[in-house]
Write a structure and sequence with these properties.
The protein has 329 residues and is α/β, with parallel strands linked by helices. It folds into 2 domains: 158 residues, Alpha-Beta Complex (Quinone Oxidoreductase, Chain A, domain 1), CATH 3.90.180.10; 138 residues, Medium-chain alcohol dehydrogenases, catalytic domain (Quinone Oxidoreductase, Chain A, domain 1). 29% of the residues lie in helices and 28% in strands. Strands 1, 4, 5, 6, 7, 8, 15 and 16 form an 8-stranded mixed β-sheet that branches. Strands 11-10-9-12-13-14 form a 6-stranded parallel β-sheet, sandwiched between helices. It has a two-stranded antiparallel sheet with strand order 2-3. It is globular, with a radius of gyration of 21 Å. Its cofactor is Zn(2+).
């Protein structure tokens, strides 16, 4: 193993979830990279809404978690590499797909990191959700002139609003929070609609699209009703893109509607790490070109000892909240 400087300590700080809604920060042994791996001294980690189900302590969840577990949106500087690592060097700043990033250090495979350009220095870069947004956008097949409805304007929905506007699409943004609708307007959405009454929304969208509905509808909430609504807003032979995280139970669908309208339905979640990595590379390109600017969306920052507050805020989504980051000194 190579190191940038002599290691001053053999321990690191890591969050351990010990029960539903409870965690502690522990001093644990500093992990060492094996062959083909590297270690990242993390600058920060984004807080993902997918953490909320295990944080709530469902029956299947096992506590305590592994140190740093659940954190998967890390970025930082490589401080050690294992044998046979060729493409990344000590001192490189990277976005990582490591899975233990609620800690000051994390291990990742060489092919699970993306080097970040120098102009990103000092700026947060939670690569996993940024790459997710680019992959969803790519699978949505959005082109100029289309009408695109985005159901749910959180971090993901706001990123997709920017990307769709940059592509020349007309965006209809739907969200329950006035703050999120304001955010969508500032990102270029042509129409914003409160996510309240099911039939009122359908009639409104029907009216503003001259009865045609939307070429593309991206559902980005992860709940039953928004999924139902998204299908209703998709035109005949349109594309319904499921981007929400539907992992809190089974869903029912209106197959009669889907079948009658001849909808193309895309489940836009990726599991192949190589596709995730390409999405992160595409996010780097999109930010450098000006098509994407995530910086206004990082609304709250917390130290590791306040990870519980960050998770609770991600769950409760108070006014003004979009995305929480855990930052390390």
């Amino acid at each position: 193993m190579n190191v940038l400087t002599p290691v001053q300590t053999q321990t690191m700080k890591a969050a351990v979830v010990i029960g539903a809604g409870r965690l502690r920060v522990e001093d644990v042994p500093l992990p060492q990279p094996g062959p083909g791996q590297l270690r990242v001294k993390l600058e920060g980690c984004g807080v993902c809404a997918s953490n909320l189900t295990p944080w709530a302590g469902p029956e299947w969840m096992r506590f305590p978690t592994e140190p740093g577990g659940l954190g998967h949106e890390g970025w930082g500087v490589v401080d050690a590499v294992g044998e046979n690592v060729q493409s990344v060097a000590i001192g490189d700043r990277v976005a990582s797909l490591g899975q233990h990033a609620y800690a000051t250090h994390d291990i990742a495979d060489e092919n699970a990191v993306v080097p970040l350009p120098a102009e990103f220095d000092g700026k947060p870069f939670p690569g996993e959700p940024l790459g997710c947004a680019l992959n969803i956008f790519k699978r949505s097949d959005i082109v100029a002139g289309q009408t695109v409805a985005i159901v749910g304007i959180g971090f993901l929905g706001a990123l997709l609003t920017q990307l769709c506007v940059a592509a020349g699409a007309r965006v209809i943004a739907l969200s329950r929070r006035p703050f999120s609708l304001d955010l969508a307007r500032h990102s270029g959405a042509g129409e914003t609609i409160p996510l309240d009454d099911h039939w009122r929304i359908i009639e409104h969208v029907k009216q503003i699209t001259n009865g045609r509905f939307c070429d593309r509808v991206i559902e980005a909430v992860g709940k039953q009703w928004p999924l139902d609504l998204a299908a209703e807003l998709t035109r005949e032979r349109g594309r319904l893109i499921v981007a929400g995280y539907h992992q809190d139970g089974p869903r029912q669908i209106n197959m009669q509607l889907w079948n009658w309208r001849g909808l193309d339905v895309v489940n836009a979640h990726e599991r192949d790490p190589a596709i995730y990595i390409q999405g992160i590379r595409d996010a780097v390109t999109a930010i450098r070109s000006g098509r994407l600017d995530p910086s206004p969306l990082y609304t709250h920052r917390f130290p590791l000892v306040r990870l519980d507050d960050a998770l609770n805020m991600t769950r409760d989504r108070p006014d003004g909240f979009v995305k929480a980051l855990i930052v390390y000194p």
